Amino acid sequence: MGKKIILLADTERSEQEKLRDFYTSFANLIKDNGLEDSVSLVRAADIGIYAKGFAVKIFPQGTIYTGVKDGDIARIIEASVKADGVLNDLLFKEEPKQIRIVLRNCGVIDPESIDEYIACRGYGALKKILSGMTPADVIEEMKKSGLRGRGGAGYPTWMKWKFTRESQGDKKYVICNADEGDPGAYMDRSVLEGDPHSVIEGLIIAGYTIGAGMGYMYIRAEYPLAVERVKKAIEQAYDCGLLGKNILGTDFSFDIDIRLGAGAFVCGEETALIASIEGRRGTPRPRPPYPSVSGLWGKPTAINNVETLANVPYIILEGGDKFASIGTEKSKGTKVFALTGKVKNSGLVEVPMGITLREIVFDIGGGMLTDKPIKAVQTGGPSGGVIPVDYLDTPVDYENLQKLGSIMGSGGMIVMDESDCIVDIAKFYLGFCVDESCGKCAPCRIGGYQMLNVLNGIAAGSGTLEDLDKLRRLAQAMQRASLCALGQTAANPVMSSLKYFENEYREHIVNRKCRSHKCRSLMTYSIIQDKCKRCRVCVINCPVNAIEGDREKGFFIDASKCIKCGKCFEVCKFQSIAKE
Amino acid sequence: MAKLTLKDIDGKIAAGLEESGDWIKVGMSTCGMAAGAGEVFTTLQQEAKKRNLAVQIKKCGCQGMCYAEPLVEVHCGGLPDVVYGRVDKDVAIKILEKHISAKTLVNDNIYEVRTKR
Residue B5: its chain A contacts at CB < 8 A? Predict the structure, then answer.
C-alpha cells in the first residue's frame, strides 16, 4: 500500500494565494499529526468540479469533499486520512457527465501507431463482420443502434446504407466527409488527428455493407496534420493487409484514397463534395437523385461524416442495443461538441444525447469565463441558431434543437455573454454564408447579400422597423428556394435571433443603441470632466483630431469629427472616457 | 509489416496495450501543437536522456481539454496516472525530476488524476 495522496483544488479558481494558504494550513495539520511520511499533499489546478469552494480529493479511495473550510481540515484528517472513513456532510458525489465513444481512443493511443489501435480492440469490428456478418446483418445492427448522421441533418445511417446497397450499379463508392468548416467546430479534426484508424475502419465497414470497392476521404486542406496522420494510417492499413486486395485473407477487397478540399465551405454539402472529388468546380446540384442512387461518377454513393464513421466500430463490437441504451428516444448515442466562446473550459466534450445545455456549460464547461451572465448558446454553426438562456434546460437532441429554431449541426457550441451583441452575431454568421455562397442559385447569392445589407444598416443606425419584416421575407424565400442546405439554412441565425431577441433589434433601430457596445456606429464617446486629469494622451492619440480644448478649459470630443475608433478609450489611464 | 489475417487481429487484441514501465504521453494534435506541445515533447526527450531516466516519451491525440493544452499524462509505477495541463519547459523538467524521479506529484498543474483506466 503506497502513500495516500491528497489533492487540493479551488473550484472557484479565484486567487492562487487563497489556495496556497489553504494548502499551508492543511500541511501544518498533517505535520502536527505526524503523518508527513504517509501522505503526500498536492495542489491541483482543476479537478472537474466547479463553483463549490475548496475541494479535497483523497486517493486511493477517491473520496471528494467540497466546500471545505479551514475548520474542517482536522475532521478530514481524523476521518479520512488516518482511517478510511467518510464525512457525509462534506461528501461530493461525482457523476461522470461525459461518455467517450467517438473519442474513446483520442488522447489514449499514439495516432501514428496501428499496433496501439489494434491493441485497443481496433479493427476488431472489421474482423467480426468479415468472419460471419452479412451486409444485411450490419444494416440490422446499425438500425438497432439508431445512429443518425453526425454531420448535421441527422439522417439515419442504416437507411442511407440500405438505400445505397439496394441501388443498382456496377460500382459503388463510400465517402468520408471530413470537410469540417463551421466556425468554432473542430470535432472531426480531433478524431482524425487522435484516432484516424477508427474512421478508416468505419469507412471499410461502410464499404463492405453497401458493396463498394473504393472509398474516399475528403479532408479539407486546412487540416495539414490530420491529412498527414490519415495518410500514414492508410499506408499502415495497406501494409497490414487491412486495405487492398483480400482484406485479412478474405474475398473482400477495398481501397481508400484521400482527396483534399481547398477550403470552400459549400464542399461539405454532399453533391458539391462529389463534384469536387470528380475534379469539377464544387457547386451543389438539385436533389433528387440523391447520391445513394446517383452519386460519384453517377454511381450509388454513401457519404458519411467523420464522427458517424467513428461510431461504427463501437456499434459493431458492442452491439446496437448497447449504443441505443444511451441517449433519448429518437436520438441515440453520444455527440461530440466543440465548446467554445465565453466559457472557462473550452474544448471537446462528448456527452450522451439528452443532456441539458446548462449541464454542458456549467458542469462540464466550468461556467462563464467572465463575470457577466450568460446570454445565449449558439449551436450548429452558420446553419444553426441562437438558443437564449431561458431554454438552457432543454435536453439536447436533434428534435429539440430544431424546435428551438437551431440545429444539432456538426457540433459547434458557442457560449455568449451579455457583452455579445445579437445583431453583431447574426451579421457574422450571415456574412460567413454570403462569403461562402457558391453563387450558383439566386436565392442564396442575392438573398444572402441583401439580408446582410439590411443587417449592416441596422448595425449602423440607419435601420427602420420595416427592415425586420424584410429580413423575415428574404429568409423565407431563401429557405424555400435555395438549391442546397447552405442557402436554405443561411438565414437561421438571423431568424432565431430575431425570434428570441427582437427587443435588441428594436433597440438598435428605435433607440439607436447597442446595449453590448459592439456596434460601433451606435456608440458615442465623451470625456468625463470630473475624472479627466487633462493629460492630453487622448488628444495626441486621436487619429482624426476630434478632441478639442485646452488644459484650462478641459477637453471635449467633437461628435461630428469622431470616427468612433475607441482609441481614446483604450489609451486613457484614468478611465475618464465614457462609452455609451 | 506482414499482412494480417483474421486470427492475428484476435491475438493482437488479446495481447492488449503493452504498457510496461513508466511512460509520459504528450497531446500532439493541432490544439496541443499550437500551445507548444512540440517544445515540451523535445524537452522531455532530451532531459530524460540527460538524466538517464527509464521512461518512454510518447505522442497521443487530443484529450479534449483544449483550455489546458499542452497536456501531458504521466504513468509512473506506484502513483495514479496524472494529467498535467498548461505544461511548459519548466513544468516538463519538474515532472521528470519530481514525478518520475522522486515519485511526488507536481503542484499547481494537475488537471486530472485517474484512479483506474
Answer: 241, 248-249
DSSP A268-322: GSHHHHHHHHTTS------SSSPTTTS-GGGS-EEEEEHHHHHHHHHHHHH-HHH
**Residue A170: Cβ within 10 Å count:** 6
Q: What residues 224-263 of chain A have any CB closer than 8 A to a CB of chain B?
A: 225-226, 236, 239-242, 248-250
* Whether residue A365 sits in one domain with residue A248: no
CB-neighbour burial class of residue A279 (10 A; exposed 0-12, middle 13-18, buried 19+): exposed
Q: How many structural domains compose chain A?
A: 5
CA-based nearest distance A467→chain B, Å? 40
What pLDDT digit, counting tens, does each position of B71-107 carry?
999 988 878 888 999 999 889 998 888 888 888 888 8
Task: Write the residue in A60, A190, A250 that is nearest to B62 by C-beta.
Answer: A190
Contact B59/A111, CB-based, under 8 Å? yes
Q: Which amino acid is at B86?
A: R
The ipTM estimated for the assembled molecules is: 0.89
Q: Are residues A428 and A410 in the same domain?
A: no
Q: Are residues A400 and A446 in the same domain?
A: no
Compute, in degrees rounded to 10, the torsion defined by CA atoms A530, A533, A535, A537. Answer: -50
Q: Is the pLDDT of residue A482 over 80?
A: yes
Q: With beta carbons less than 8 A apart as the criterion, state whether A177 and A220 touch.
A: no
Which of A31-45, A391-405, B76-90 comes out lowest in average pLDDT? A31-45
**pLDDT beyond 90 at A314:** yes
Domain boundaries, chain B: 19-114
Residue A108 inside a domain? The answer is: no
Same domain, A214 and A124: yes
**Dist. CA A461–CA A463, nearest whole Å:** 6
Give residue A106's pLDDT.
86
Which of B3, B10, B61 is facing A240, going by the closest CB pair?
Answer: B3
B68, A45: Cβ pair inside 8 Å?
Answer: yes
Residues 6 or more apart whose CB falls under 8 angstroms from that of A45 comprise: A9, B68, B85, B86, B108, B109, B110, B111
A355 touches A345 (CB < 8 A): no
- Strand pairing partners for A341? A415
- Closest approach of chain B CAs to the CA of A339, in angstroms? 10
pLDDT, one tens digit per residue, over B44-69 is 999 889 888 888 888 888 888 888 88
Burial label, A137 (beta-carbon count in 10 A; 0-12, 13-18, 19+) = middle
Cβ contact (<8 Å) for A250 and B18? no
- On whether both A68 and A14 belong to a single domain, the answer is yes
Whether residue A55 lies inside any domain: the answer is yes
Contact status, residue B28 vs residue B72, Cβ threshold 8 Å: no
| CATH architecture for residues B19-114 | 3-Layer(aba) Sandwich (3.40)
Choosing from A271, A303, A323, the residue where a domain stops is A323
3-state class (DSSP) for residue A175: strand
Is B83:B111 a contact under the CB 8 Å cutoff?
yes
Tell me the per-residue pLDDT of A363-380, one tens digit each, with 9 for 90 and over: 888 888 888 899 999 998
Of A29, A59, A82, which residue constitutes the final position of a domain? A82
- Residues A126 and A233 both lie in one domain: yes
- Residue A434 reports pLDDT greater than 70: yes
Interface with chain A: mutation pick from B17, B18, B30, B62, highest number of A CBs within 10 Å = B62
Contact A248 B4 (CB under 8 A): yes
For residues A342 and A396, state if they share a domain: yes
